[in-house]
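Let us begin with a simple case.
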Amino acid sequence: VLVDKKPKRYIENQFSGRTGPNKTVVFTSKKNLLGQLVKVKIIKSTAWTLYGELIE
């Protein structure tokens, strides 16, 4: 996942990014990961958004 921003509905330590097929993924991290590629395990999905946990 390429981390590109903090979501509009800001929750502390929450980030969002995009997968290769351009799906939005939301996850939390204590580190500032903007602009980095990270691995995220998907734990929940909706019609438009994937939610996951950062794999460190």
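The second case is a distinct protein. As before, the sequence precedes its structure tokens.
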Amino acid sequence: MTLDGFDEIAAAWAPILGAGGFQIELHSVFCHSRPHVTFAPVPHPMYRGGTTPRRCELADLLIVIDYVDRREKVEDRRAVLVQAKMLKGAPLKLSGKEWVQHELLAWLPAFTFVDKAYDPRIRDLKGPPIVGFPRCTAEYGGIDLNNSTPEWWNLLAETTKPWCVSRLPLSLFMAKMATGDYYCSRTAIRGGCDDWSFTVDELLRVTASLPITKKSDVARGNYNVVGFIAETSSLTGLGDGGGEDFIEGEVPEWPEGPMSTVHVTLSRME
């Protein structure tokens, strides 16, 4: 679904954009790792962890859409963090320690990366200088494989019940990202000094620094790269980043390291 799905999005968009004088370039890289972070508790009303320091994965996926018009000297970026969850034919439902990550994604407390591949600075994604709308920083991606055609629904992480709202199919969500919808993803600045823009740049850079070991067999004739990074848990310089004092987490499902990324660049045809 991931390898072919995002490639098919690029293939479907290409003729539509081409008719308007634009082109699409997509780099979609998936890896068996997630960057881990630590943060002080809010705390979450649905989690009984009290004041125990928190540790969890930041997210499964970073989606970035850049619009570049060199002729008009315009450069615009939208980005969003996505945490994937299997729906199993039912609405998205969080439980247990899943609320720890929801606490991070919905409230956006200041955090630090555990992994040595990332800058050790504290990240405050809703602190000054504020770029974009912090509330739209993170979404859940509900994936339902029980239908004849697999479905992916994006839901915004919220600080009040029902906790995840504004359900949209991934295709529509990304289309709204591309057209600048205020409530679908968050504005970022390439090379920006604010914590959000800096973190988006860094996540892209850490993933891009590693070679793709397996490409998708789906070839569409456009400038797309879709593939895997393998064995990330054993890469030099990743992992072993501390966090021993954070007794919140159980053994993580995914090793520390780079994040899966989908980076779309839309530009005017020269």
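Confidence is low (pLDDT under 50) at residues 216-223, 228-252. Residues 2-268 form one domain.
Keep these points in mind for the review questions at the end of the chapter.
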